[in-house]
Specification:
Elements: H1 6-9, H2 20-34, H3 44-65, H4 67-77, H5 90-108, H6 112-136, H7 143-171
Helix pairs in contact: 2-3, 3-4, 4-7, 5-6, 5-7, 6-7
Length: about 170
């Protein structure tokens, strides 16, 4: 028997648009039931199982609550996702370079207000990608597009992490 699907673990239908509050609530409930502390007096084998269940629950939660990871997971359920293919996405490569330059300028100017504006624009771009992905991930004919969108999501996720780090540095 293989490991249960991440969605089944939380009693959710596989899909991209998730109720993240519901996911968090179910995660907390399940985490309590498999918490290793509850098995402190149990035999070692049971403790080990509890630890493994706790770890896989945590992994499933981290995957589903993050949009790009959830996108990759959904695609993987339907077939292999090529690791890093050379991205045939020249339009997005240009966009990436533009964003990177913009971020460097904001960093050089220590422009906290500009960073906030950049962050909002990034969020809008992420929401648009999420909607596009949600509309096509389940359609085999649009598989290539879904993979392209997932890679764009991964890039924006990384970029928004860098933006938060810059924000913290400028805030200090």
């Amino acid at each position: 028997m293989g490991t249960p699907c991440h969605f089944a673990l939380f009693d959710l239908q596989p899909g991209f648009n998730l109720d993240l509050d519901l996911l968090a609530t179910r995660y907390r409930e399940l985490a309590r039931s498999v918490h290793p502390d509850r098995f402190a007096d149990a035999p070692e084998a049971e403790q080990r199982v509890a630890l493994e269940r706790s770890a896989s629950l945590n992994d499933a939660y981290q995957t589903l609550k993050n949009a790009p990871k959830r996108a990759r997971y959904l695609l993987a359920l339907k077939g292999e996702v090529p690791l890093e293919v050379t991205v045939q996405d020249p339009e997005f490569l240009m966009q990436q370079m533009q964003w990177r330059e913009e971020l460097e300028d904001l960093q050089d100017d220590a422009d906290l207000a500009g960073v906030a504006v950049f962050k909002r624009r990034l969020k809008v771009a992420q929401e648009e990608l999420n909607e596009s992905f949600a509309a096509c991930w389940d359609d085999a004919a649009q598989r290539e597009q879904a993979e392209r969108l997932m890679r764009r999501m991964q890039f924006l996720d990384k970029l928004s992490y860098e933006v938060r780090q810059l924000e913290e540095r400028l805030d200090d």
